[in-house]
Amino acid sequence: MLSSADPAEAVAYFEDAISSNTALFTARSNLALVRSARRDYSLPVVPFAQIERARLRHTVALGATKQGDVAMGRGLLQDSLDTHPQHFEPAARTLAALSRDVTT
Protein backbone atom coordinates (compact mmCIF):
# COMPACT_ATOMS: atom_id res chain seq x y z
CA MET A 1 0.00 0.00 0.00
CA LEU A 2 2.90 2.39 0.60
CA SER A 3 3.84 2.46 -3.06
CA SER A 4 0.23 2.55 -4.20
CA ALA A 5 -0.62 4.81 -7.10
CA ASP A 6 -3.56 5.92 -4.97
CA PRO A 7 -2.21 7.43 -1.73
CA ALA A 8 -5.74 8.27 -0.54
CA GLU A 9 -6.57 4.56 -0.71
CA ALA A 10 -3.41 3.76 1.26
CA VAL A 11 -4.33 6.34 3.91
CA ALA A 12 -7.83 4.85 4.19
CA TYR A 13 -6.39 1.35 4.45
CA PHE A 14 -3.99 2.24 7.27
CA GLU A 15 -6.61 4.31 9.10
CA ASP A 16 -8.98 1.33 8.93
CA ALA A 17 -6.28 -0.97 10.30
CA ILE A 18 -5.57 1.48 13.14
CA SER A 19 -9.26 1.84 13.98
CA SER A 20 -9.44 -1.96 14.27
CA ASN A 21 -6.38 -2.11 16.51
CA THR A 22 -4.74 1.09 17.80
CA ALA A 23 -1.72 -0.91 18.99
CA LEU A 24 -0.52 -1.62 15.42
CA PHE A 25 2.68 0.42 15.34
CA THR A 26 3.47 -0.69 11.79
CA ALA A 27 0.14 0.65 10.53
CA ARG A 28 0.73 3.96 12.35
CA SER A 29 4.25 4.15 10.93
CA ASN A 30 3.05 3.37 7.41
CA LEU A 31 0.30 5.98 7.72
CA ALA A 32 2.91 8.55 8.74
CA LEU A 33 5.05 7.55 5.73
CA VAL A 34 2.16 7.89 3.28
CA ARG A 35 1.22 11.24 4.75
CA SER A 36 4.82 12.51 4.62
CA ALA A 37 5.03 11.50 0.95
CA ARG A 38 2.08 13.88 0.45
CA ARG A 39 3.96 16.58 2.43
CA ASP A 40 1.66 16.19 5.42
CA TYR A 41 4.19 15.97 8.23
CA SER A 42 1.72 15.84 11.11
CA LEU A 43 1.34 12.60 13.00
CA PRO A 44 -1.95 10.71 12.87
CA VAL A 45 -4.28 11.48 15.75
CA VAL A 46 -3.97 8.20 17.61
CA PRO A 47 -2.46 7.34 20.99
CA PHE A 48 1.34 6.99 21.02
CA ALA A 49 3.84 6.11 23.67
CA GLN A 50 6.58 8.71 24.04
CA ILE A 51 9.20 6.54 22.30
CA GLU A 52 6.78 5.73 19.46
CA ARG A 53 6.10 9.44 18.95
CA ALA A 54 9.83 10.12 18.77
CA ARG A 55 10.38 7.29 16.28
CA LEU A 56 7.52 8.44 14.08
CA ARG A 57 8.80 12.03 14.13
CA HIS A 58 12.15 10.62 12.96
CA THR A 59 10.42 8.66 10.18
CA VAL A 60 8.43 11.70 9.05
CA ALA A 61 11.59 13.83 9.19
CA LEU A 62 13.30 11.45 6.78
CA GLY A 63 10.29 11.75 4.47
CA ALA A 64 10.40 15.55 4.66
CA THR A 65 14.11 15.58 3.86
CA LYS A 66 13.58 13.20 0.95
CA GLN A 67 10.92 15.59 -0.38
CA GLY A 68 13.45 18.44 -0.21
CA ASP A 69 11.86 20.03 2.87
CA VAL A 70 15.16 20.05 4.75
CA ALA A 71 14.24 22.79 7.23
CA MET A 72 11.06 20.92 8.14
CA GLY A 73 13.10 17.71 8.46
CA ARG A 74 15.53 19.40 10.84
CA GLY A 75 12.67 20.67 12.99
CA LEU A 76 11.06 17.24 13.11
CA LEU A 77 14.39 15.62 14.00
CA GLN A 78 14.90 18.11 16.82
CA ASP A 79 11.36 17.40 18.02
CA SER A 80 12.15 13.68 17.86
CA LEU A 81 15.22 14.20 20.03
CA ASP A 82 13.29 16.40 22.46
CA THR A 83 10.45 13.85 22.71
CA HIS A 84 12.54 10.72 23.23
CA PRO A 85 13.13 9.97 26.93
CA GLN A 86 16.73 8.90 26.24
CA HIS A 87 19.35 9.78 23.67
CA PHE A 88 17.92 8.82 20.26
CA GLU A 89 20.99 7.98 18.18
CA PRO A 90 19.36 7.61 14.72
CA ALA A 91 17.75 11.06 14.95
CA ALA A 92 20.96 12.60 16.33
CA ARG A 93 23.04 11.12 13.47
CA THR A 94 20.61 12.34 10.81
CA LEU A 95 20.44 15.83 12.31
CA ALA A 96 24.24 15.97 12.48
CA ALA A 97 24.51 14.87 8.84
CA LEU A 98 22.04 17.56 7.73
CA SER A 99 24.01 20.15 9.70
CA ARG A 100 27.25 19.07 8.00
CA ASP A 101 25.58 19.42 4.58
CA VAL A 102 24.71 23.04 5.34
CA THR A 103 28.21 23.97 6.51
CA THR A 104 30.06 22.39 3.58
Helix content: over 70%
Please mark out the parts with pLDDT under 50 across 5 or more consecutive residues, or reply none. none
* Elements, N to C (H/E): HHHHH
Indicate the mean pLDDT: 87
What distance separates the N and C termini?
38 Å
Our estimate of the beta-strand percent is under 5%
**What structural class should be given to the helix and strand makeup?**
mainly alpha
Gross geometry: flat
Characterise this structure.
- With 104 residues, the chain is mainly α.
- The protein is built from 5 helices and no strands.
- Helix 1 packs antiparallel against helix 2, helix 2 runs parallel beside helix 3 and helix 4 runs antiparallel to helix 5.
- The radius of gyration is 14 Å and the shape is flat.
- The model has no long low-confidence stretch (mean pLDDT 87).
Keyword list:
5 helices, flat, 70% helix, 104 residues
Condensed summary:
With 104 residues, the chain is an all-alpha fold. The chain is 70% helix and 0% strand. It has helices spanning 7-20, 25-37, 50-66, 70-83, 89-103.
Map the helices and strands:
Elements: H1 7-20, H2 25-37, H3 50-66, H4 70-83, H5 89-103
